[in-house]
Fold:
Amino acid sequence: MNTQTEGKLTLSVPFWCSLRVIITFVGFLGMIVHFSQKTNISIALVCMVNHTAIDHYNINTYSTKLNHHCLKANKTTSTEGSYVWSKNTQGILLGSYFGGYIITQVPAGYIAGRYGARILFGSAIFISSLITIFMPMAAAAHWIVFSILQVLVGLAHGTIWPCMVVIMAHWAPPNERGKLMGFMNAGLFGFLWTILWFIIYRNSPHNHRYINEIERTFILEHTHEQLNRNYNNNKFHTPWRSLLTSSSCWALYIIHTCSNWGTYTFLTSIPKYMDEVLGFNIKFNGILSALPYVSQWLIINLSGVIADILIHRKFLTVTQTRKLFTVLGNLLPALFVLCLAFMTCELKYIAVLLLTTGVAFSGCCFGGGFILVANDIAPAHAGIIFGISNTFATIPGIISPYVVGALTEKVNSVSWKYRMRDLIN
Structure:
């Protein structure tokens, strides 16, 4: 297609009333289910555990004695659960999810790339929703049973991000990829979503019955679909050697792993930090623990739009844009976390502001940074590339919760301060 024809087609194709935006919205709802199930344990543990029954839950340093009255004044109501789980046990429970999550990344990337993401994504949410319903009974039985269910949820969820990358490869033109990926980015709701997903989504614009011909042609022209017919089952071939030796791929694998150390530490530790250091009760803990991620969602969408503009208007190349937003998404949160290490209960609202701002700016990586690199490198194999990358990047999720539990074994602001410094290092 020549430039003039392409320009006319681009101008005539709607965006907000298009099927690709509808699919993006349904994917967004699916990610709500995904992250609700992924984070609910870190919040629930705050009120599930009987802290006073744990021997090491004592205030025994000079620093925390000065902070003790502030903590007691803020926690006007005691929230004690029935489970006597040590910090190390809690770390195992949080990390066990990622033990399952790491296993299915590469297989999911291969399966989604070869057969499509429709059934895999929908089945993952259905299975994880079914398992989540049995979580309370598992916790009552034994923490090991609870941990096993966490592993199973992780196995199901490990297929989701490779599916999302494959969906973007099929449905998101490069000039719209940042904002569509940004926007995309629980039991009963999960079942309802599964039904909606199977109704709305198809693996390719080629065979979607509700798409109009103009949008179908537009998407296919901009997603390399017509040039990459190897999605046919008999011709699908994965260049494993290239994916494991490419310098571009390894750059993605390394930055993804390093970035996820901070991401998963935030994800699993924010509710405990709110409770043990800042002294918020469980009601405000849940609200304030969600605030950083609401802000992150806004930054993801904003950075996605800005990244698309920078690329479309040729202010920066695709590579320069990815590097810029990756640096912003890692450097700025590190600076705010470094400041957070010196916060106490008396400065709790400043701490919340620093925490919210730091997590928010990490969204730059999702809207315009390294999360989109797999689609830039090889759209036809984006699911497998991201699966390999996320396999390495899940290792911090396994290690970090246990490390947090070990380093904050005695609950006080000093141990959390050193934990924050370790996060920077």
Observations:
- Residues 1-10, 55-64 have pLDDT under 50 and may be disordered.
- The CA atoms of residues 91 and 401 lie 5 Å apart.
